[in-house]
């Protein structure tokens, strides 16, 4: 397997996002914030199945995924999304601390983790920039 190609991301690159969270007020808040900060939120989903449907219909660049989707796991969704042709950048999020999930996050295909209170355009762009500048040896070309 070779090193995947990387693409530089600028501060003003257009990003298209899907937000996956089971809590409607949180989803609305994140959507409103990101849109004010220049990220186009293509859709929101509250379940694994709905997220997959919307991903295939909308083809976002980045998917923000809550770790807890009721009885479903955000980690499972991240793995599923990373297995598709032309996978999106997946960023995991939670109201809990990153330390609570450190090993699971590191083992996941997600490009990073954000506390829900830290979600912002800048934080998302920083994670994407870091991920794109990190050499990948899994053969997957990151968008």
From TrEMBL:
Pfam families: Response_reg (PF00072). PROSITE patterns: RESPONSE_REGULATORY (PS50110). Residues 16-131 form the Response regulatory domain. It comes from Dactylosporangium salmoneum. SMART domains: REC. Transmembrane segments: none annotated. InterPro entries: Bact_response_regulator, CheY-like_superfamily, Sig_transdc_resp-reg_receiver. This is Response regulator transcription factor. The keyword Phosphoprotein applies. Keywords: Phosphoprotein. The modification 4-aspartylphosphate is found at residue 66.
């Amino acid at each position: 397997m070779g090193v995947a190609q990387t693409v530089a991301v600028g501060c003003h690159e257009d990003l298209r996002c899907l937000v996956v969270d089971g809590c409607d007020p949180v989803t609305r808040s994140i959507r409103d914030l990101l849109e004010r900060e220049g990220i186009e939120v293509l859709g929101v989903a509250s379940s694994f199945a709905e997220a997959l449907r919307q991903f295939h219909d909308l083809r976002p660049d980045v998917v923000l995924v809550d770790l807890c989707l009721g009885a479903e796991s955000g980690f499972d969704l991240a793995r599923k999304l990373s297995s598709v042709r032309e996978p999106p950048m997946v960023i995991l999020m939670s109201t809990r601390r990153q330390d609570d999930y450190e090993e699971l996050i590191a083992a996941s295909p997600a490009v990073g983790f954000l506390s829900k209170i830290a979600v912002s355009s800048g934080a998302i762009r920083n994670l994407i920039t870091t991920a794109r500048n990190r050499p990948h040896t899994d053969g997957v070309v990151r968008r």
